[in-house]
Amino acid sequence: MAKVINVSNRLPVTIGEKIEKSSGGLVTALEAMGPSLRWIGWPGAAIDDEARQRDIEKTLRDQFGYVPVFLDAGEVEAFYEGFANSSLWPLLHYMPSRFRYEPQWWEQYRKVNEKFAACVLEVAQDDDLVWVHDYQLMLLPGILREARPSLRVAFFLHTPFPSYEVFRCHPNRAALASGLLGADLVGFHTFGYLRHFCSSVLRLLGIESDLTEIRHEGRTTRVGVYPIGINASRFDAALDSPQCAAHLTSFREAYKGQRVILSVERLDYTKGIPQRLDAIDLFLARRENRDDIKFIFVAVPSRENVEEYRVLREEVELRIGGLNGKYATLHNSPIHFVHGSVDFKELCALYVLADVGLVTPLIDGMNLVAKEYVACQRDQAGTLILSEFAGAAQDLFNATIVNPYDAQSVAGAMEEALGTSPEEAMRLMRPMRERVMRYDASRWASWLLDDLRAIKPPAPPDADLAEQASRRISQTLARGGRVAMFLDYDGTLREIERIPEAARPNAATRSLLDRLQNHPGLDVTIISGRTPDDLDSFLGSYSFGLVAEHGAAIRRPHERRWEQLDRNVSYAWMENVLPVLQLYERSTPGSFIERKRTSLAWHYRRTDPQFGLWKARALVAEIATLIANLPLKVRHGKKIVEITSTEVNKGSAMLHVLEQLEVDLVLCAGDDVTDEDMYQSDVRNLISIHIGMEDTRAMMSLPSPAAFRFFLTESLAPTPTPLAVGEK
User: CATH class for domain 4-70+116-225?
Assistant: First the structure.
């Protein structure tokens, strides 16, 4: 039976004299899976004694089905407190001023992610589902993908994902984004977070996406929105319990005659507690009768061993003391501050008691406190005041939405909420509560896992076709036949560079070119949109045939002289088209014009990718109108818009070269629209390969130049099985 392997930084246990299981929405959402669930994570304590580790591991496996990942104190400090919480956490929450970074933290973060991966790989079978949680394990999906491509892996981010402009501040930004792309499915609380992630992938890795899919390296990572819920049945059961009723009776007696405004938060700088106190200060200053108001602050301790959290606690306690001193009367201190955890049923009674739930974080992935408050408004309703920067603001549509940075607005919202009639409060609350109770944590988990199950196990695209094509080439060469190869350069033999001049052959490309040059039976032509000067500079030392500017000029094998193939083509049109390109160059920072002898090209690979693409599409439309009655073609390639004569194209150049060759097999390969003319050529025994994931008329696709270089290397390897006589 297939298992669900749930992987989180912490196991839901507390290690002490005994091992006690923790409660929570995620635990409830997954525990219904019973024996099919395995949970992998750190048990929450640095345990060095190996005998104690073995005892804990046995207990966790036997009693709970949990698999511990043991971390030493140094790993906890660098991986968790350092990289995860001092480096990633502030950036994910739009607070770069709190960002700290040490290079050694990154090394430990990577090593701990690898340690988690080793544990997953030990437990997982190929048909299992692996679900990875949160920012502490952003590298894990990529590590698992590389180690075992057949695994189906989901990743869910419980925090916000910030805009690219914030995420780009991180020194390891590209590696983190790439790590997440190892997953088959990446989930977020809101569409805004999803959109920011796709934008970062585009800008950091150059990988475009559509609304729900990111296609890269021959596979697809799906992205989705999965707003997390609470353990709804637990809250319903608590509301019906005698303990909750007793707590509620006690609270009503204690706060008799007072309106209660409740805040429940972890004591974290993202929660906006100082800003909330500013709003409370304004609210109390305006109010004549302060005896009938009680603010209850429940601040759950958080990361108390971190200095800035200790400073925050001191600041909050000092501020609350000052406000109580400022606004206290003989009968009432307006703020009751509790720094500590509260019993669950006691907390539910507080939620029921509160006339107003005040939830105003500066930023929050979801904020389940808001949903917990709503869940407890069953028999009578209060009013929820909710920050627009909490993910829950998109779910809880009838809440009073406020900007937590605007103290005047929050103070006004409190006054308005206290003036809401019970009937109006219930009218607003009822549909929100129905949604919270329906879309609970269990529904959230099953929704995401069902989507993961629906994803087919990843397989290399066109794997069978690639194997057959490689065999045809190697067997043709093995029996003494000849193979003609027409190979594009940029994006095919060599990865595209942001600066075109930087795309000289690297070590991997040179190694392949050397093999092609020295292998008997090959007639190789590099066919490119680059100028003759570029090709001479990059590839002049090789004896290959070279075709420049999409077929306008040719340098035949073993020759140094270039021959023009476009003697009868007029380029007078350039003077009319050039001003349009210059206009787009001026209005698109980072773009530039390349004026070739036979074409005009507008490059935008150095622009903002979304802005550049938008401008490129506009340029294509404008140029198409301008040249509608001319024998010209506008090509929108990879980060380039190029205008050329219809009489000059790679397909025609390939046919011209083949007229003078006798070959048994022809291979052509390219990576953009300029290569489609080759794929559509009427050539016998043609193998056409497109590099990339775009729609194409080629016979097959390979995901990257690296994959194509590997394909060619394998095709040139000796084969023990030659083709039968007469087989093509």
Answer: alpha beta
